[in-house]
Amino acid sequence: MVVNEKYKMFKIALLSVLAKLCAAIIVPSRSDFPDTITAVVHITDPLKEHDVHGFVKLTQTEGRVHIEGEIRGLRPGPHGFHIHRSGHIGNGCSGAGLHYNPLNTNHGPQDADREHRHWADFGNIEADKDGVAVFDFWDPIVKLNGKHSVIGRALNVHANPDDLGSLGDEESLKSGHSGHPIACGVVALY
Ligand SMILES: [Cu+2]
Ligand SMILES: [Zn+2]
């Protein structure tokens, strides 16, 4: 009888350990699978002065954002490419204002840390001889949710190359001398 009781207790303890193990394996915590957020940007020239148009997709997964797209109608060569403060793209995209800069830092290259670039300084996109820029890169800083989300802000394509802040003068540290925007679109949740 005593042996039986002990066996019963042992069985219950074993089953409870097994149940906990199964729960740990089968039901992972929510942080193991962060939500994927997808956004799209339809790039156009609202003033129709340049026949620049295209599409950009941003996918946030595991804290990084994958940015891929194709923009046509550009002058061959590099063009500054950044997210600006506002989603108001009136006045030929200039309504978007300055580069989105919630940490009040200087302009910089895309591969800089968050202290040495703006929140969404994507550097340049490179148009080929036919004026087509195809790009595909990851960004560890820009976000599609939370306090510094870029949803609803404008993604601008510029006439000139972005010097990435390398010249060090005031304009270089503000916009990389990338000149006026020639096309833009609003980052929209998909
Ligand atoms: Cu810009
Ligand atoms: Zn910038």
Automatic annotation (TrEMBL):
Gene Ontology MF terms in the entry: copper ion binding; superoxide dismutase activity
Domain Superoxide dismutase copper/zinc binding: 52-187
Keyword line: Antioxidant, Metal-binding, Oxidoreductase, Signal, Zinc
Record's signal peptide: 1-24
Reaction catalysed by this enzyme: 2 superoxide + 2 H(+) = H2O2 + O2
Classification via SUPFAM superfamilies: Cu,Zn superoxide dismutase-like
EC id: 1.15.1.1
Superkingdom in the source lineage: Eukaryota
Pfam families registered for this protein in UniProt: Sod_Cu (PF00080)
InterPro entries: SOD-like_Cu/Zn_dom_sf, SOD_Cu/Zn_/chaperone, SOD_Cu_Zn_dom
Catalytic class of the enzyme: oxidoreductase
Keyword Signal: yes
Protein name per Swiss-Prot or TrEMBL: superoxide dismutase
Organism: Callosobruchus maculatus
Phylogenetic classification of the source organism: Eukaryota, Metazoa, Ecdysozoa, Arthropoda, Hexapoda
